[in-house]
Structure prediction request, 540 residues.
Amino acid sequence: MLRVFKTICVALAIFVTAQVSVFAADKIGQVKVSSGEVFVIRDGTEIKAEPGVEIFEKDQIRTGVNSAVGMTFSDNSRISLGPNSTLDLESYAFNASGKQDGFDARLKRGSLTAASGQIAKTRPLAMRVLMPTTVLGVKGTLFAVRVKDPDADKDDNKG
Amino acid sequence: MNGWGAGALGVAALVLTGCTPTGGTVSDWLTGEQWSLERVEALPPNADPYFAALQEGYVRLAKDELAEFDWDDGAKFLAKARAAAMTAVELPPASVTNELVRDALLARARSDAARAATPPTAPAETGVGEPFAADLDAAAKELSAYVQSEGPMLRAARQIGEVQIHYECWLHEASEGDGTADQAAEIDLCKESYMLMIVLIRDLANLPEDMVVVLPEDGDIGGVELKQGATTLTLEKAFAAAGTGEKLGDVAATEREIQEAFAAALASRPPPPKLFEVFFDIGRTRITDDGFEQILLAVEDVKSRAAAEVLVTGFADAPGDGSYNLALSRTRAARVREAIFKELREGEVPPFSVEAKGEKELAIETPKSERANRRVLILVR
Prediction:
């Protein structure tokens, strides 16, 4: 009897997992627009960020000179980066079991425009953009951020 | 040309006539009006900070010249002060209640006014010899650029007016250059003041390198909340901006500046996700003609996007058994998915997610039969 119960439990667990994985447990977004040199850095590996490339929590997105990228996330929020930008997707939770919705992206350098989605709609200020000295909490919905390249100080005398 | 533009030209002409030693009208000249420091000092300060700074500055320069019994130059600077005092910056009428419109009008009025004002005179025409001509020329170019730019005038109008006075002082002393040590000291004093202040202006006039701006959108703007240490700043209007570098603070920015600063990122924004709704008859899973129209629209949208994703979610209204409704919503979603599939060629099929909600998350919370709740949502992004 116990054995049967166990089997049912396992079957149920598989079923539940399967249901969840329909939404790909960790995929949080997708590259939609890309031009020039754009890379997704995941666990130290560079992936060329072409339209369709999937994005996961903890990914870093990097653009080069004359490059730009646009991404759409599972809560329908959108972020695009201009040239010479680095964005860390530090944490992301949307309809995840046991987790409060939240989205933290850190702009280390460069420029960004964003449209917030469901996360900011249901939990104001739960979508945040972290900058070197300032934290931005989103109420909704469209905004832009830029952060000076910390390594570009040398040619700062052009006024 | 609008009325204001004509007025501005008139003012510019007035300022220019002030440049000649015989500035002012004949009657002024006869009555000594052109040297009346008191009259010019009694004029109320211009409401515009740029012209107010010029007004104050020219009075100061005039005083210095008159103290040296240089009547020609004293009259020249007094005439300039008078012109700066009387330049009218047309404020938007009170009936214009929209703050954004008011701000935009004010910004435009100022920049028009700045353009119409005397641009720093090119030193070539004033007989300035080496070694000042090149420095003055570079300064004139930089200053003119600021005076004629909307954004810098919005952020640093007063300071730009002040630095223009230092420039004119420098230009004036340099063009009077008689090679004496005293003269050289006076040139240096004006030049140093200019050089010190223009550095400050470069910081003030340019948009901060670290900044946040709220972008315009249809519908309500929620904006953003910025936190730096114990300081909190909320931006909640289109084009409201803040510098987020070492110190958090509001900064005025023009639409054009924002478009330029974020051009590449703005151009790479993915199109917004789009929602299509397919409604069903009571207890049915058959797609109606109206429903099929929505499906075709969704298919067109899928085809128009790079790397589209589709989420199909089925719903049922409340009457009936819960598990029956869940199954019903699942079948509805599957039917819609199938219909979209049929309209796409093999290479066009995007990643699909299909979900069934049964009688949960109703569009209209009612236990009754409700068409709005018998639906399948197609989200394309």
